[in-house]
Design the sequence.
């Protein structure tokens, strides 16, 4: 893409995606959260998007039914167990929900069937209750990833982004729970604080991965998978 990015970026309403040639380069000291195709199903829909939301719910239900049918025929499939776990994780709202328990069971089953494959660990990273456990599984998924595995480049980029952003979201949650919230405008706020050395290295990996996504997909396909949203 021919653009330089500073690894000292902090969180705010800016673009982490490599800009198109027709766009001005974003400020190198800012970055924001990415929204992926998977996240569209859990973001609040505007009133004008009700029909689209209902359509997505219908598509998700149909996809779940197909996965269950295929899994009943091939219960030892690591991929099918992981995929169904992820679908169920997106559906459940309550930690004690039976759907949540099934999602965890399926994810553990996927890890058992393919301990060196990233998909089971990725599924676990989305359904475990404890933040530290989710991050451990997410790191295992990232470490197990390779270009020829079933977890595509878009999913890999999303996993890297989660590893960068979710610890800060958890830090914000803990601060709120303890009554020690930091003002949103403060440079020390978890969403605005400068990246440390480890985060900077991760940021560079994200940019590299996103460049790979851009190079392998048409603009339209990438726009469907990766879109900007404002940080909280």
Sequence:
């Amino acid at each position: 893409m021919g653009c330089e990015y500073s690894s000292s970026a902090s969180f705010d309403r800016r673009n982490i995606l490599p800009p198109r040639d027709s766009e001005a380069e974003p400020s190198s000291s800012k970055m924001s959260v990415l929204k992926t195709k998977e996240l569209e199903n859990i973001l609040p829909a505007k009133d004008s998007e009700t029909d689209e939301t209902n359509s997505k719910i219908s598509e998700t239900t149909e996809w779940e039914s197909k996965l269950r049918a295929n899994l009943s025929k091939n219960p030892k499939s690591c991929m099918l167990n992981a995929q169904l776990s992820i679908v169920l994780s997106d559906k459940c709202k309550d930690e004690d929900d039976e759907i949540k328990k099934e999602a965890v069971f399926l994810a553990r089953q996927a890890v058992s069937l393919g301990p060196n494959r990233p998909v089971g660990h990725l599924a676990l990273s989305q359904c475990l209750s404890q933040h530290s456990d989710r991050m451990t599984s997410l790191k295992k998924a990232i470490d197990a990833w390779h270009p020829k595995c079933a977890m595509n480049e878009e999913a890999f980029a999303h996993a890297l982004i989660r590893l960068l952003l979710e610890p800060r979201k958890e830090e914000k949650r803990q601060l709120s729970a303890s009554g020690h919230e930091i003002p949103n405008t403060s440079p020390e706020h978890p969403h605005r604080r400068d990246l440390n050395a480890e985060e900077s290295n991760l940021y560079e990996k994200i940019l590299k991965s996103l460049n790979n996504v851009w190079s392998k997909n048409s603009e339209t396909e990438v726009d469907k998978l990766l879109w900007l949203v404002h940080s909280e």
Summary: Strands lie at 10-11, 30-31, 34-36, 226-228. The longest strand covers residues 34-36. Residues 1-46, 220-232 have pLDDT under 50 and may be disordered.
